[in-house]
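Researcher: Sequence recovery benchmark, item below. Answer with residues only.
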């Protein structure tokens, strides 16, 4: 039986683990984070501290909710990751759509994998009965503006959902899907999961992988493997590759999110599943959303209470210009092209809010990005094998790092679909 070490338990890692364990591979999953626990304290308790500006900067969210990793990649931009069992899926909004920008251009058609995911996951739009009245009004305004909004497909079991609005702090009712559901099946198939196991390097000899090393205190533990599947996300995978002196590109994209905030008395927008509808434009989406990071940590948003705050997010497919260093530092700027596109999209968000009776001052939130990809981008020549020939034998990448272009769309399904296709190739090649 072939020994596989999978690195990361998010969308990509869990999908690969399930596919390979099903075929009898001996799979060990190494996950840097701890088992996931949703945030259950009352957010409103922190409102007075927020108003006084005593919460400090955005990195302080890691003190109250350590699974959410926040790092500044430039003066303007913050990168958000889930470092925990389930990765970013554990802190996602549960939006499930096909994102495939840049794939046809390189000859990659993931339709069979998307179909398989859609068949095995319960995906339904947020019922309109759960929308706040203002969300409904903004939907109608977006329709008036010919922005073609539609209810967002969600991997949420709505009979369990309490409309707490805090999907990104983890779902306390288990209503929202995360990759833990896939991991459970992989474990039933015989896979083994080690949490708190941060992989440092991929180990190679004569261009052949023979394992990975994990730092434990002052020493390094070696996990031997015939096959290593890196699925530590766009940043984690790049960091491991850089640390191991293996090929990786400085083309990180993050799908920049910028939320425009306005005011509507007692609108209570947080009391619904986030992003109840979305309007998909060429490079971005617009969606109703209260940005928790901006609400608590962004000075221009400080003086408005949660019950009166209204937001519409722009999620933009950004320029692929970021890099990750071997020590994990992320360097990524908001480019002029991104700024120009964001300005246009933010104007549309403002139009929607104004027509819906939302008042100003309209303030931009914190620039942040949590869809991390592009650091080992697939090229046309890689599609038949689903791996770059620059990688040592036995090393595979199975996460969003493979997606060559930013999406401006939810990306869990894409990460999973890529990992499923890669797993098929691992099996086909008998690696
Ligand atoms: C706040 C937030 C909300 C989101 N909401 C949505 C949404 O609603 N819908 C959607 O489609 N997408 C959403 N996304 C994006 C989506 O979750 C990610 O694009 C997707 O999960 C990426 O999958 P991945 O496998 O590439 O990485 P991840 O899911 O991030 O998994 C990477 C895993 O690797 C682990 N890891 C990192 N470094 C190491 C290491 N050195 N050793 C071992 N393990 C390591 C991490 O802890 C993590 O578990 C959201 C993202 C964020 C941040
Ligand atoms: S809004 Fe619903 S799905 Fe989201 S965290 Fe709350 S209960 Fe879970």
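Model:
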């Amino acid at each position: 039986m072939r020994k596989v070490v999978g690195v990361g338990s998010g969308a990509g890692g869990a999908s690969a683990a399930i596919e390979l364990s099903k075929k009898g591979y001996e799979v060990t999953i190494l996950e840097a984070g701890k088992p996931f626990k949703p945030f259950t304290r009352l957010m409103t308790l922190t409102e007075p501290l927020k108003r006084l500006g005593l919460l400090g900067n955005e990195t302080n969210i890691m003190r109250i909710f350590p699974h959410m990793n926040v790092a500044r990649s430039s003066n303007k931009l913050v990168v958000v990751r889930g470092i925990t069992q389930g990765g970013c899926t554990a802190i996602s909004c549960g939006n499930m759509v096909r994102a495939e920008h840049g794939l046809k251009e390189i000859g990659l058609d993931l339709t069979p994998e998307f179909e398989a995911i859609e068949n095995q996951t319960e995906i339904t739009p947020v019922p309109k009965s759960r929308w706040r009245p203002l969300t409904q009004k903004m939907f109608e305004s977006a329709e008036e503006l010919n922005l073609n909004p539609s209810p967002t497909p969600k991997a949420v079991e709505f009979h369990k959902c309490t409309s707490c609005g805090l999907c990104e702090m983890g779902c306390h009712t288990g209503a929202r899907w995360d990759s833990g559901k896939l991991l459970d099946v992989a474990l039933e198939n015989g896979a083994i999961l080690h949490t708190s196991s941060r992989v440092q390097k991929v180990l190679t000899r004569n261009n052949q992988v023979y394992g990975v090393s994990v730092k434990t205190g002052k020493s390094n533990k070696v996990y031997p493997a015939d096959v290593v599947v890196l699925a530590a996300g766009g940043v984690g995978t790049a960091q491991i590759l850089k640390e191991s002196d293996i090929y990786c590109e400085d083309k990180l994209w993050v799908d920049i999110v910028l939320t425009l905030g306005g005011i509507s008395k007692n609108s209570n927008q947080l009391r619904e599943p986030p992003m109840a509808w979305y309007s998909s434009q060429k490079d971005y989406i617009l969606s109703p959303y209260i940005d928790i990071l901006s609400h608590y940590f962004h000075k221009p948003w400080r003086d408005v209470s949660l019950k009166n705050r209204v937001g519409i997010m722009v999620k933009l497919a950004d320029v692929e210009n970021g890099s990750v260093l071997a020590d994990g530092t992320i360097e990524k700027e908001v480019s002029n092209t991104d700024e120009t596109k964001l300005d246009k999209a933010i104007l549309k968000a403002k139009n929607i809010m104004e027509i819906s009776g939302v008042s100003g001052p309209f303030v931009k939130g914190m620039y942040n990005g949590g869809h991390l990809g592009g650091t080992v981008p697939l090229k046309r020549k890689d599609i038949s094998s689903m791996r770059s020939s620059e990688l040592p034998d036995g090393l595979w990448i199975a996460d969003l790092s493979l997606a060559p272009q930013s999406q401006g769309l939810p990306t869990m399904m894409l990460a999973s679909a890529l990992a499923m296709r890669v797993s098929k190739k691992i099996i086909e090649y008998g690696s």
